[in-house]
Amino acid sequence: MENTPDSFATNTASPLPTAETRAALSAAGLEAPRTDFSQLSRHAEAIRRELGKVIVGQQALAELLLTALLADGHVLLEGVPGVAKTLTAKLLARTLSVPFSRLQFTPDLMPSDVLGTSVFRPNKSEFEFRPGPIFASIVLIDEINRAPAKTQSALFEVMEERQVTQDGTRYPMPAPFVVLATQNPIEQEGTYRLPEAQLDRFLFKLSVGYPTVEEEVAILQGHHAGFGGTPLEAVQAVVSAEDLQQLREQVRRQHVEPKLLEYIARLVGQTRAHKGLYLGASPRASLALLNGAKALAALRGRDFVTPEDIQYLAPMVLRHRIQLTPEREMEGGTPDDIVKQILQQIEVPR
């Protein structure tokens, strides 16, 4: 299996156009980028370089994590044990100069263990809220499907509204606020199925595959040479919260043609009419696809979104938001198969 997060992934990052490229675009009736993405490119390359100090391969995964970061979205990482899901999330957090927190979800975890609790202060004769570990900018939730529904529901408000309401008081989360969650798709004992409402709050669901033979050889060589373990200290913070906020503002100003907005709506709408689906995607999926495409275009050096950006991200945005009918599941179908069919059915705007 390739190291790409899924079978749709390709690593086709595009640099800013040269003078020759601009001239060719002009001759073809297209506009060259009007936005200077040099700062964004520098920061993105710095993060990739830091991740590369420890992680071998996974370039496509790194690009998608950066896309989610720029789009202000949460990510669910799914893969078998040992493919560096947790390590990648921890390393990404270390590249940002922001508070980081890690939660290990277990069956006995309570909502107060995540959100925090009110503690009575006798000297003040009042209750004082003590924030839980969710109050951080980058929150890693390891094995998110091991906590029961009561604890899972505690994440609904904080993931969507970036706030926690306790005893009638609203406590806003720090900015940025991103949840990176991991889960094992194979192991079933001691796990709980994630509620659809929570899955819908993740911008992407990324399937982390095995490395290639060449990459696994490189991993073995590094370990044999004494670079084993998890040398987190090798990775340095290269982007501040202020830098990230500026980059996100740049991404929000990306140009999107009206016909592409219609294309997104038609793609997502088709999931609600497909005969092989019991549950289609909501308008939140349309927004996720739009925001993700804008961030991906910026990462690839463009200030405009193309249909290819939307097609590339469609599986990551939709696979966890749709449910197959029992008949399609018995036939061995997968959500990605349905997404492929829909992409082939909907006419691509040009």
TrEMBL record:
Highest rank taxon of the organism:
Bacteria
Domain AAA+ ATPase, chain residue ranges per copy: 71-212
The record's listing under InterPro entries reads: AAA+_ATPase (IPR003593), ATPase_AAA-3 (IPR011703), CbbQ/NirQ/NorQ/GpvN (IPR050764), ChlI/MoxR_AAA_lid (IPR041628), P-loop_NTPase (IPR027417)
Under the heading SUPFAM superfamilies, the entry gives: P-loop containing nucleoside triphosphate hydrolases (SSF52540)
Q: Name one Pfam family in it.
A: AAA_3
Q: What is this protein called?
A: Magnesium chelatase subunit I
- Organism field: Hymenobacter glacieicola
